[in-house]
TrEMBL record:
It comes from Hyaloscypha variabilis (strain UAMH 11265 / GT02V1 / F) (Meliniomyces variabilis). GO terms for molecular function: hydrolase activity. The keyword Membrane does not apply. Belongs to the AB hydrolase superfamily. Bacterial non-heme haloperoxidase / perhydrolase family. This is Alpha/beta hydrolase protein.
Length: 276
């Protein structure tokens, strides 16, 4: 299996599918998942002639589980390591949830010399936590509850999240999928405990405002109207105000897990944005 080693000797697992000479599309996954969560989009775009790459974030999936470095700056640096290792140019970056924060921080920290477009799906920017400058954010007690649930019974917590709000299976009339629930649990339990715990702070408290303001390439925002994990009011509806070249598409009634629950629509939106 392919790995790349970072400056602090962390081994990052990645997949590199599709047409080796096609335009590259690089995917960053959400918490506490791994690159497997992008398989529908990777297969679709790979089948349309694109080169599709996705990595497991440090501490997640098949990558190393370092004690330190579980923060957005290091996540962005790891993404750069993958991109430079594969010498990718003119790439489109796609990030879901925490991965959307990773993409935003990458562009704010490393610029767009190797990137031509970006897509943020149900993404955490500009900032999730409630504070004076973010009145629509969620109280820190929500994320403290995540941490308590992890240290009390991580396995049960990682069943409760997909059974309920992540896929929107707790909404009236929703059709639940036991397969999606089990897949989420499996990916989550592969995540190192320390990496999963630290990542809660990274995705909830990192402020991406200046990153978004600095981005000079076209950015497509896809967000579910009924997202219960990253509510749209403090996320995409604020991010669109900060982006120089942003486009927002709201999925009516859409949940947080758009890449899993709106597969065909997300696939087509990515393809259209690539071709535009």
């Amino acid at each position: 299996m392919p790995f790349v080693t970072t400056k602090d000797k962390t081994e990052i697992f990645y997949k590199d599918w599709g047409n080796p000479s096609g335009k590259p599309v690089v995917f960053s996954h959400g918490w506490p998942l791994n690159s497997d969560n992008w398989e529908n989009q990777m297969f679709f775009l790979g089948s349309h002639g694109y080169r599709v790459i996705a990595h497991d974030r440090r501490g997640h999936g098949r990558s190393s589980q370092p004690w330190d470095g579980n923060d957005m700056d290091t996540y962005a640096d790891d993404l750069l390591t993958v991109i430079e290792h594969l010498d990718l140019k003119d790439a489109m970056l796609v990030g879901h949830s925490t991965g959307g924060g990773e993409v935003a921080r990458f562009l704010g920290r490393h610029g767009s010399s190797r990137v031509s477009k970006a897509v943020l799906v149900g993404a955490v920017p500009p900032c999730m936590v409630l504070k004076e400058s973010n009145p629509n954010g969620l109280p820190i007690s929500v994320f403290d509850g995540f941490r308590t649930a992890m240290t009390t019974d991580r396995a049960q917590f990682f069943l409760d999240v997909p059974t309920g709000p992540f896929f929107g299976f707790n909404l009236p009339g929703a059709k639940s999928s036991q397969g999606l629930i089990q897949s989420w649990w499996q990916q989550g339990m592969l995540c190192g405990f320390k990496g999963a715990y630290d990542c809660i702070k990274a995705f909830s408290e990192t402020d991406f405002t200046e990153d978004l303001k600095s981005i000079d390439i076209p950015v497509l925002l896809l967000h579910g109207e009924a997202d219960q994990i990253v509510p749209i009011k403090a996320a995409a509806l604020e991010s669109i105000k900060l982006l120089k070249k942003g486009t927002l598409k709201i999925y009516p009634g859409g949940a947080h897990a758009l890449p899993n629950t709106a597969i065909d629509e997300v696939n087509e939106d990515l393809l259209k944005f690539l071709q535009s």
